[in-house]
Amino acid sequence: MKTLIIYATKYGCTEDCADYLKTKLTSDTKLIDINKTNEQIALGDYDTIIIGGSVYIGSVSKKLREFCESNLDILSKKNVGIFLCSAQTDLFSDTLKSNFPAALLESVKTTKLFGSEARFEKMKFFDKLIIKAVTKGDFSKFKISNEKMDEFVTEITG
Fold first, then answer.
1. What is the DSSP letter of 40?
2. Cα–Cα nearest to 67, from 48, 83, 51
3. Rounded CA gap, 68 and 119, in Å?
4. What is the pTM of this model?
5. What sign does the CA torsion over 81, 156, 141, 139 have?
6. pLDDT per residue as tens digits for the range 5-20
7. What is the domain range of residue 77?
8. pLDDT value of residue 59
9. Between vectors from CA 89 to CA 87 and to CA 91, what angle results, nearest 5°?
């Protein structure tokens, strides 16, 4: 069994989640940050494909969305899971629907929201303003759930 975790991260939270998943999976697993690669990805080489993204203003990375759209045929025939990193738990379903093709969402084995982290030391000024405005200064929502990540691993491998 070979697994590919393809993700997009802005400040590193999603990458940390991808790394965590890799340590929990027993298969041969490769990590690819879609925003940092130009390599042609041979999806046919993988049994399981995990797609992860961070959510900013309701959207995941444009490159991640384009990857899913352009590889929809093969992805819909694979064992696929999608995870998101976002503090807006109440918008998870809507965020999935607005960022991923419906045909892909119908065929995925699992989807999970892992939570988020606010890495203010890495953020650009504009992102800090948005985070502060959206949260109204309440940063208690910013926490990654190891429990959700472990559930994801159980569901994608089961």
1. P
2. 51
3. 27
4. 0.87
5. negative
6. 999 998 789 999 999 9
7. 2-157
8. 93
9. 110
Tokens of 150: 């472990």
33 - beta bridge partners?
A: 7
Backbone angles phi, psi at 86, to 5 degrees: -160, 145
Q: For position 105, what pLDDT does the model report? A: 97
Query: pLDDT tens across 85-134, in order?
Result: 998 888 999 999 999 999 999 999 999 999 987 665 666 776 666 666 66
- CATH code for the domain in which residue 85 is found: 3.40.50.360
Q: Please, where are the H alpha helices in the chain?
A: 13-24, 62-70, 72-75, 92-99, 102-107, 125-135, 146-157
Length of the chain: 158
Domains held by the chain: number:
1
Residue 152: closest CA among 51, 58, 60: 51
